[in-house]
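Hey everyone, long-time lurker, first post.

I ran two proteins through the pipeline my lab uses and got sequence/structure pairs for each. Pasting them in order. The first:
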Amino acid sequence: MPSDRTPVLFVLAHPDDEFACSMWMRALVCEGRRVGVAYLTDGGFGGQATARREAESLRVLGRLGVAAADVAFLGRLHGWPDGGLHGHLDQAAARLGEWVDGFGGDASLVVPAWEGGHQDHDATHLVGWSVARVRGFRDVWQIPLYTGAGLPGPFFRVLRTLRENGPVEAYRASWRERLEAIGLCFEYASQWRTWVGLLPFLTVHLLLAGTFPRQRLDPRRLHEAPHAGRPLYERRGFLSQAAFRAEADRFISLNLRLHGSET
């Protein structure tokens, strides 16, 4: 990360996605960086209570030192449904851009990795890419959440970077931070069904590796599938890869036409 004091803005898909960067967030706050967090879906998949999910994330972010005034639940405000962000890419980019501008000038941007785990994560990656390139941000990172790359059926790995996304850097957590990061996951009581699957793998990663990895966003990857084989979201029956790809290609083409080709 740069040594200046530009804000670091985490653009996430769902309340609770901050689990993938929690201790890095705290470290940035402790360095004196202003940390902002925006969520691009309403978190209401399957009729879940969005207010409860937001309260859980606000409680976690508060413990990490993130000011509540710097947290925006854009998905709920604008009606972008959990599971359906790919259908709202243009509006999401416009509204996220307005939120980012509120921090003034340059910023470091952090988005979910291009990894084929959840369609909303990949859609958020696209929206963040668009906002960063329009505003000329050069410091743009991607963080892994979970991916099914190289695995069959519904199986996945947590906080596993993809080789295709380039060199890996990481925040290495202390033992105290590792245990705290695991403990914070129990704050997401409304998501207990999800965390029954996620928490064991996250715990193993944090105890053995203790890292919160990140990679630079590579715009060339947007023209490729995240990995060989079917993405996890398709294997789980949430969305076909073809349907996501159609929206992604339209959005990418529009951005390149309006704002010029990548350099």
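...and the second, right after it:
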Amino acid sequence: MKYFLRILLVPAMLALQSPSAYAIVNVEQAIIGKPSEGIHTTVDLLANGASGNTDKSSSKADILSLWQYDRHTEFLQLQYGYGKSRGLVDTDRAFAHLRHRTSLNESWAVEGFMQVGRDPFARLTKRTLLGGGMRWVMFEEEKKSAGYLGFGAFHEQEILTDKLGTSDPKEANLWRANTYLVLKGQVNEQVRLYSTTYYQPDISDTGDYRILEQASMLVKMAQNLDLKLSLDIAFDSKPPQTVQKRDLSYSAGLEFSF
């Protein structure tokens, strides 16, 4: 278990060393092991802010619903983030993600997904994804630890916002490979850790790639209520002009599950 926790924390420690961009969606819940039959929903409410010499506020709402039946799992995720700095809006992004997964046996599953989102402050008027792939269960021990490896591909369409002084195309269509690693661990009765790392290169140009690390710690406060601490770090090797390659966000809030 100690070895697993060291593996789980490495991506988050590395991520702290460099800032991230927001393009990849994580639909993993903090459930360790196969979900029981039925519908499982979590609602995250995260916020931070400051006033006085620094005037800044931000908030994020994230709803993830999972429906487990027989060998199939359906996911629906909705997220919205909003923030202000010195009275000016500097964050206003949203997405919706739908995914289906069917288990073939104890070790393998096939999945397909679609997504639509926007982030005007990253010059993203609209992004749509459609893809799928395979998922391998590396190890899975209910309420103790789990590890999953996914790989596949998706088609991506991006429509960019025009900005004075930029020359990149307004619309881009391409295929990306999609690889992800999920690690989860139960530290004790109160604390769970989980980490998801994505790598998504352009199939026709491997120099164009995106990496995302999302790490979270949940501390149980009540039967269906957790304190959630999150860290997201992303890197886009070829972002739209005027948009930074690295982006980092961290937040604290509450997660309700039912």
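Reply from user beta_strand_b:
Welcome! Quick read of the second one: Residues 136 and 145 are 15 Å apart (CA to CA). Residues 2-257 form a domain with the Porin fold (CATH 2.40.160.40).
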